[in-house]
Every structure is written in C-alpha cells, then in structure tokens.
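Example complex used in Figure S2.
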Amino acid sequence: MNVKLAAAGFVLWSTSAWAQGFAGLGQTSEGFSDPTPGYSFVFPDDHAAHPEYRIEWWYLTANLADEHGTPYGLQWTLFRSALAPRATDGWDSPQIWMAHAAVTTPDGHYVTERFARDGVGQAGVTATPFEAWIDEWHLRGSSFDTMEMRAGGPEFSFDMSLVASGPLVFHGDEGFSVKSGEGQASYYYSQPFFDISGTLETPEGRIAVTGNAWLDREWSSAPLSENQTGWDWFSLSFEDGTKLMGFQVREGADAGYTYASWIEPDGALTPYANGAFRAEPLRTSDVGGRDVPTEWRVVLTEQGIDVTVTALNNDAWMDVSVPYWEGPVRVSGSHDGVGYLEMTGYE
Amino acid sequence: MTPTVLRALFSHWRRNKLQLFTLLAGLALATALWSGVQAINAEARASYDAAAATLGEGQFDQIVRADGEPIAQADYIALRRAGWLVSPVVEGRLNGQRLVGLDPLTAPGGLGPVTLEEGSDVSAFVTGAGQVFAQAATFAALGPTEATQVISPDVAPGTILTDIGVAQRLLGAEGQVQRLLVAPDQPLGQPSLDEITDGLVRQVAQGGSDVGRLTDSFHLNLTAFGFLSFAVGIFIVNGAIGLAFEQRRSVVRTMRALGVPLNWLILLMCFELLLFAVIAGAIGVALGYVIAASLLPDVAATLRGLYGADVGGTLQIRPAWWLSGMAIAVGGTALAAGAALWKLARMPLLAAAQPRAWALSGGKALFWQAGAAVGLLLMSVLLGVFASGIAAGFGLLASLLIGAALALPLILSAILSVARKLARGPVAQWFWADTRQQLPGLSLALMALLLAMSANVGVSTMVSSFRLTFVGFLDQVLNAELYVYTADEAETATFLQVAEPLANAILPLMSTDRSIASLPAELFSARDEQTYRDNWTFLQSVSQPWDVLARGEGVLINEQLFRRADLALGAMVEVAEGVTLPVIGIYGDYGNPIGQAIITEELFQTLYPEVQPTRFGVRIPAEEVQSLRTALKEAGLADANMIDQAGIKAFSLEVFDRTFTVTTALNILTLAVAGFAILMSLLTLAALRVPQLAPIWALGITRRQLGFYELCRAMLLAVLTAAVALPLGLALAWVLLSVINVEAFGWKLPMFVFPAEYLRLGLFALVAACIASAWPAIRLARTPPAHLLKVFSNER
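Predicted assembly (1143 residues):
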C-alpha cells in the first residue's frame, strides 16, 4: 500500500523527479537492496528500519466512532527515506524521516506534517521494545500487539491505545508484493486486527472514541514502473469480520496493475493477482479545485464482492509537501462495512 | 487628423526648446535623486533581508541560554521530543567570516539556501562533505574548504551558510548549537520550557531584523533627502508645464475651433506628456544609477562601521527599482500636469487666448494657500507635542516642511509690501513693487530653495551635533592610552609582567553575552579606577554611582537598554542566574546596536569565574606609549593586537565622516537643483517681462541698470528665503535629533548650533541665486533697444 508515499522521499532528491509525475519512482536503485521472493521475515527485527532499502513506512489508519455512533478517521504515518543505503550516528546520516498525522470528522479534516534528521535522536524506529517516533509523536509498546500512539499539531491531537486481536498478515507471495507488470515489488505485511480506543482533540472538542485500526509495514527501493502515474488503495473491513485490501496502480487513464488480499477473520490470506480486483470511479468531487473520485464501485468476483465505497468526508485532502487524498470510507452493497481509501496522482 | 494635431502640439516644443529642456531636465533630476536614494536603500535592505532570512532574525522567536553559553544538542532533542517545534542554528567565525549552520528539515519555512518546498539538492547539502553557500567575495576570504562551494548572491555578505552537521565539524563544536528558532505554529499540549530543561530563555521576535531597525534612521534620512529632491524637481516640472499650457492656449483654441474634440486633444496631450515622462524617467533612472553606484561604497562603509551591518559594495540592477523609477517619473508628471489639464478641460472654447502672464494669484487661491499653510504648521505642532512613533515623526517633518513652503510666498509678499511702504523715491518704490509683482512666478522656485536650504541647515546641524557628541563619547569610552588584546593566559601573564611596572594603571575588560531584560546584551566588568570617575558622564544616575558600583550594589546600563527595555533608575536587572541589581546609572553608547550593562570587576569575577580577561586598557603618559609597545613586542606580543587611543579615535572618526560624505553630496545636489529651478523660472519669465520693463527703460533707466536690478532682486529673494530657511532648518534638526533618532536608534542626541556653518550656507545660497540670475540679467542688459521699442509699436 501507499506506494506513492514513498515518493515523498524523492521530493528530497529533486523536484524534477516529482514533476515528472511518479516516473521518478522508476529510478534504478544504485547500492540499495531490492526485494526478492522467498524472504523470511524475522520478528521483532523486521518491525524496525531497513536502511539498506530506499523507502519504508509504518502506516496506521483507523475507523473510529464516538458513543453516539458518529464516525471518525485517523492516520498516523512515519516514512523513512534514504539518500544512501546506510545509517550512521550524527548529522551526516543519510536517512531522512517524514511523518503525517490526520484526523477526519464528518465536517472537518485536520492534517499536520513533520520532518527529521536521522542520527541525532529526533526520529527513529527500534524493535525491542518497539518504538517508532518523531518529535513528540510515537507509536510504541512492549510488543507489536499492545501499543500506545500519539500525534498532534497546532489544531488537533490524539492519544490512543491499540491491542491486536489477530495475527500479522503477509501480502502477495508471503510478503513479497508485486506492484507492476515489470516486476517492481516491495516487502509488505499488515496488522489489520487492532482494537483501538482513546481521545481525539480537534477544534470541535475532545471526543472519546473506539474502533479498529490497520497498520501497514512496507519497504522497498523502486516500487513503481516508469509509466505508472498514481494509484487507488482500499482497505475495507466488512461487518462479517472479513477484510479486503486492494489497489490499482494506474497507467495514464487505464486501470493499470491491480492486486487484492482477501483476509479471513482468523488471518488466513488469499492473494489475487493482476485483473481480479476492479475499482471504478462512480462520482467525483471538487476538492480544492481538483477532480477527485470520492465514490467507487469495488469488485472482487471471486469473493462475491460488489460494493459501493463512499468517502465519509470528501475533503480529506492531505495538503502536505507531497499532497494526496486519504480518508475514511463507508461500504455498502453486497457487503457492508467501513474502511480507508488512499488516492494519489490527482493533484 | 491625429498626426496633424500631434505635429501642431509638438511645434510648441520646437519653438520653445528651453522649456522642453526645463521639463525634461527637471523631471530627470527629480527621478535621478529619488531613484538613486531608493537604489541605495534597496541594496542595503536586500543585504539585511538576506542576513535576516538566513538567520531568522526578527522573523521567529528564538531560544537561547540565559548565560549566553551554547545549548547542548541533547537539550534541542529533548525540546523536540517534548513537542517544541524548534530548529537549531550553529554559528561561529571561520577565517573572519560568519559561518552559519542550519537544519533544512526543521528550519521554519523559507530559511536557508535549501528548502524542502523547493526540493533542492538536500542530499548534497546534508550528507558527505556537504555544501557551503556564500557570495564569491566571502569565499575568496574563506579560502578552500572540503565542502563544495556554491556561489550564491542571495546570501548576506560575509556570511557562509551550510548544514548544521558541516558547521559543527568546521567549527569543532560537535554537540552544540547557539540558538533555536521557534516555529510560529506550535502543537497542542506543549509543556513549558522550564519543565523540559533549565537555563533556556525565549526571546520574542522583534519584527524586522535588528540591523534593519537600527539602520532605519539612516535610511530614513536618505529617503527624506530623496523625497525632498523629488519635490524640488516636481516644482520645476510643474512650473514648466504650467507655463507651456498657458502659452498654448491659443493653439488649443484654434485646434478646437477647427473641430478637434476636446477629449481627444487632452488625450493626445496626455500622450505627449507620457512620452516626455518616459524619456526623462529613463534618463533619470540611469542618472540615479550613477549617483547610487558612486555613493554606495561610502554608504556600505558607513553601515559597516556604525552598525556592523554588512552591505555589498556593488549595486545590482533590480527590476523593481527600474519600475519604481519610471513610475515616479510618470506619477510626478501627472501630479505636475494635473492642474494645467484640468484648467484646459474647463476652458471655454472661445476664451481669450492671450497669456495670463504672471498675473497675481487670485485672492481666493491665496486664501486657500494661507489656510493650508496654517493648518499644516498647526498639525506639525500637534504632532510634535502629542504623537510618538516613527510614522508620526515623519508626518511632523512633512507637515512642517510643506506648511513652511506654502507659507513662504505669503511671508515674502508681506515683507516686500512693508519694504515698499518704507521706500523713498520712484526707482526704489518701483523696485519693491515689481519684486512683489514677480513673486507668484518665482514662488515655486523659491519654495524649492527654501526646502533645499532648510534641509541643509537641518541635516548639517544634526550631523555636526552627532559628531560633537560622538567625539565626546569617544573621549569618555577610550580613556586608556593603549589597548592590548592577549591570546591566552600565558600571554596575559607576559603582558602584565611587562606592563605593570611601566603603566599608571591597567584596566582589564571582561565581558560576556547575556540576555538582560529579555534583550540580547553584553555584560561588562569595570575596575574601580579613577579614570572612569574622571571621564564618564551619565545621562541619568543616582548620586556617586561609581561608589555604589564599587560596592557591587548596582549596575550601569546603556541608553539603548534603558529605552528598549523601559528600565528606569532603580529597576532591578538580572545580571546572572539569581543575582539581580538595581540600575544606578544610564550612559550614552552611540553606535552600539545592542544593550550593554556594567558591573564591578569583583562581582563579575565571582559570577563568571570562567571569563578570563583578554583585553586591557593601559593608562600611561602619552609619550611613553611607543616605548611600552616596543617592550611588549620584544616580550612576544603581536603588534597587531595593540592599538593606541589615537588610532581608534582616528578610525572611528574616519568612519563617521565617511557616513556623511553621502549627506554632503546629497546636500549639494539638492541645492544645485534649487538653483536650477531659479534659473529656469527667471528664464521663462524673462520674455514675458519685456513689456513691463519697456516703459521703465523709456523713462530713462538704462538696460545695464535694469540688468543690475534683476540680479539684486534674485539675491534679495534668496536672502529673504534663507532667513526663513534658518529657523525652519533648526526645527527640522530638532525633529531629527529628538524625535526620529529616539524612535529609530534608541538614543537622543543633544543639539548644538553652528552659526558659522549657517552663514557659509547662506553665502552658498546667495552664490547659487547669483549664478542662476546672472544669465537672465545679462540677457536683459543686452536686449536690443528695438525689442523694447516694439512693445510700444505693437501696442499701437
């Protein structure tokens, strides 16, 4: 997931790469390692950073509700971007950290962004005990299954507790996730079974909320091919306890490359290769002058999925240094549920 | 039709080349002086802004250690991890250049050469040997570096920008930062500073760079000059246009009678003026560039010497400056031509076409002029008494000058009518009456002269007062005969060993940087020494301040700190962690940009035992200075680290005098423009005066005598104007010294009066008037009798 956000790292190298759309992501990765099939994950070490890969993230989204059932969404994301495949102590460490946090309510969307140098303690990720931090933001716990999370900005903040009620799941080929017909790939696993509770603070007030959260871990060195221009990523949780993660990496106006993971309540995962998963925009909205699809038809025939996915708040635009759309969604049709939608390449 | 009309219009200028010249020259001069001053100001401001943009001075609040020591990097990280959005700045000197290290990832927006938004090459900036950014001249002084040198004209002169890691490495200051910039928007739920770590204080942004504020006064003076010159130039243009339109009445009437629509005619005349404005504006901007380029090195030297502000010595052509120069030329023309065009638009088709000559202004216009003058002068009094702030100071200046200029013709007219009543004999009576008759035609030029002269009086009074005060201040501060700098403790010991037997007294100077009353300041030590008691004067003090100071029971502060922090005598000031002392004296400290405080040496050593004296003043009879220097040199001290009092004073005064090269140059230029205005007014009036002079000539006054009277008249008016200019200039000086200086610099200067200087200026004005009227007078003296006779034959 969130392939595009890897691009955030690239803006640090050169805008021209960014200006060429996402073509910059297709760069060769001199000196960096590339993901290969058959990798055996080692935990807790793999929860920490992999500086020999160009990009990596710890990406958490949550669908929440207060006591009256009003829906909310939140996002906590830490990105690592490497200028060179090594990490050292001191200011000259070539690793750069970026973080985004957001809270979406039915009427509002609050976003903030942070940057940090590696090597001086301002940001980083350690495996035991697990802690991912930047400034005063953190996602940490004695294990990966029980964590505390905090982030905030001038307008909002949140303090949350997370408890996992299911296992980690590995996308693609046992965690080797292909992103294009040309073989670009990443390592990709998720913890989609977090129960989450805590307090949101927004200009609308302090709100106690509960819900479920989905944490993605992904790292790679060159996840996109040259002609891929953006993507649409869905993580949907249905009322019967099943979950669906699907994305399409668009090539111009074409649907491009698609992939889906079908996740049973016990964590059993079925991968679906290119073409099985389909997502078509049903309606677009004007979001700050941009035409962004905010209602989709999502189909995975093999699992009998044919649903309409609608944004909770159309204005969930992430107005950060690398802008994109990310927000909570409602699901109806063959299955009902909630989820998160990320769309890039619409700016 | 249009080409024909244009040809007809231009034919006027073909016949009146002098008028065309006046118009173009007046406009070009006005534009030149204005845009020259603007160019200097813009260049200096660009330098300050570059410095401020680099360092975040003025834009952002800053966190520093209260004791002036560097902040531990660990404290920076602790602040970040507690939710304080702060960005570290490392600062130091490398080969005499200022090295500044920033962290582009946390720096508040738009700071430094590499920003995330622009997506510049952050990789090269933060990793490996890194990059350093500076102007080419700075690199030349710096020498080669391991880091890649990137020439960047936007960086402030004498400053090198680089990544924080590179700066720490180059300065050998790993793990330390000098200060933290506080981002304007901070997250919710942030703990207070002292909950995180001790010893840090937050300094509130002052809005605008410190240097910018300090030098404002200087630029204000320049701007005032530029504006004054522009006003004088516009007077000339207004005169030329008014006269031209007056003379073209008949042309206009004829063309309208031939069927040219009035609107079209006015439009074409506007086009004609626009053309002139563009031509004159271009000449003016080019001239302004020459003026600015020749004055800028002096200005740069001044700013560096007086305020420590670095300004590049070379002028860059900035498009905004070209545009503003052209705009001011076009705007000035519009201003000068507005009244004439308005009159033309309302003129009846068949109005009498003869020239109005210089008929006395109507009673109504005079009434309004008198009303406006009184109103403006009244307003200047009100502003002087009640208002405060720089804007009010300038309002006061403007209303005073314009009010006085408007009042001038009325004052002169009154004096002349009194003189006429006192005059005996027909020639004398005619002379006074005729002089008064000519006033309206000359009044614009005389107003220009008034402004130029009073500016001269005002500015020269200010400068000379400043100079006297400054010299006195140097005597007070530089009371030791020799100053010696030592490199380390060993050298200090050597120095004391050699100097102690020879010197009458040795005054060690110790200082430390410290925030006082939340303002950046320096804390100095003073030994209880007779020298200080003999030389120092205070603006305000308790009785026997040196005794109180010696007992360690008080602190002396400079005027800047006194005014900026609003500290009165007796106010408590923190001089070290937990040690507060009352203010017992306030001293003048001219030319110092920041606050200063002095405590006694014993107390200083107790509070700051780590500060070792490395600067010493040596009291020794003047004739023995040289032998002491020789002895110190033989003991191994570098001669470059010794400077005698005379050397410092000479240097300081040289810097001071260079400051006012600019002022003097502008003074002379303004006066020259006023002289030009008089010349042009007399020349344009000359032709119209022939019918008036012909009867006098016919009555037996020779042409030579007429010419002589003409010369006398110009000089008389110049003297009268000078008499009005003197009090006006003194008022101007008072405003500059007591209102504007206090607002801009933070110090007040005593005003001194220099009669000899004013007399010289009066003579200078007289000479200018004499030169300006000489040519018209000679022309008059040589008018062929036939011309004078024609007046009578034409009348018949």
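Residues 60-204 of chain B form one domain. The longest helix of chain B spans residues 645-698.
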